[in-house]
């Protein structure tokens, strides 16, 4: 009988040899990776050597310096010690250079560097690649296509729509307020701005303020902002597979699903309306289309280059940015006026003198609200709705003071720190609307609530109009007072929020 080719006595030895080879290869790969990381860290250290910063741990970076929800306060301390810019190490080889000098801001915002991919990619499963995340020619194409949605002929009738949504909110506040307890306003303001943006930009017919699905959508947005913020700062959650298996990853997936269901329903409803020939003909005769109609007509006319994925990404992006940043702005403005009653009363008197006996606010009234506009801008200086934006340098940059950074470095434009930089704004914590008086002078890039350059906020005029309408109508109905036991604590998420809510006492005016 012949000997079998499979000899069990030799098999263990073969396995042992394979394991030894595999172990050796794994060790070599590990050493190669370690050397690669070491060399990259040395390159980073050399790249930012002109920018001093506090000592950092080789693995955990500046984590110890940034205690939970104290990031903004810590950055202000750094700005006092390190002029113009300072590197912040997140971990190992992960760093961003914080900049908070207007000359530096002007240089970066005047270039065409892309959004920082490692940061913004974490947002992409939620909002996709719309205007916020796109770069290059595709971004330019989408921006040019959507700009007509913010023509003044389009914005004019929106004033009445927004005013109606604000009155719904204020009516609700009248039912809820009492002499003894303050009201947390951010959730209410968020529902109002969501209602406004859905009616204005997405031709939505029903009120989001009475729709339970809108409450679910807002909760999903709140969860997504928190989850993304903490993921950016987590070492173990950078890997997509590991994150998807974690409890936070599961929550993120569920919140994305809820957000997408909301926007899908809005798209589906508008598509159904456009099946009506009368509605379709009316839209075709319109000189300027609303935001969603521009997207739907682009899809119909150029289905090859404008996909369903592109459509949903733009809707997800603007649904979020069109309501959440404005809600943040309005909430902080109302708090600032509550904390400064003299300025609040002067704004109220201005609105009363402008409106006189007229029933509601019109487009023509908005430009007459000069003092209230100053107060709105000063509130947005102290509480910028978007606290920072990031760019990845596509080529080297040299700043006006001679310091430079190479290609590949991520820079974070800290708008919050810029707005609180005492070298830019004397006594930055003092609420002084006259900083924005007509005859005042300031650096072109010292005030950036809507970012700047070619990638500034496409909806900034819509947002400013909505803030004026909301603040004016609120001041006509209520006196605002702060809750001294709950001073809001600003914390950075994708937008500026308060860790402990924004609570105000509301007194109905006679």
User: Main β-sheet, in a few words?
Assistant: 4 strands, mixed
CATH superfamily of the domain at 122-366 and 456-476: Cytochrome P450
Overall, the morphology is: globular
Helix content: 40-55%
The CATH topology annotation of the domain at 122-366 and 456-476 reads as Cytochrome p450
Unreliable stretches (pLDDT < 50, length at least 5) are none
How much strand content do the residues show?
Answer: 5-15%
Q: Mean pLDDT, as a whole number?
A: 92
Number of helical segments with 4 or more residues:
19
Look at the structure and give the CATH class of the domain at 122-366 and 456-476: Mainly Alpha
Radius of gyration: 26 Å
Report the order of strands and helices: HHEEHHHHHEHHHHHHHHHHEEEEHHEEEE
Q: What structural category do the secondary elements indicate?
A: alpha+beta
Sequence of strands across the biggest β-sheet: 1-2-7-4
CATH architecture of the domain at 122-366 and 456-476: Orthogonal Bundle
Distance between the termini: 111 Å
Binding site for heme: 457
GO molecular function: alkane 1-monooxygenase activity; arachidonate monooxygenase activity; heme binding; iron ion binding
Family: Belongs to the cytochrome P450 family.
Subcellular location: Endoplasmic reticulum membrane; Microsome membrane
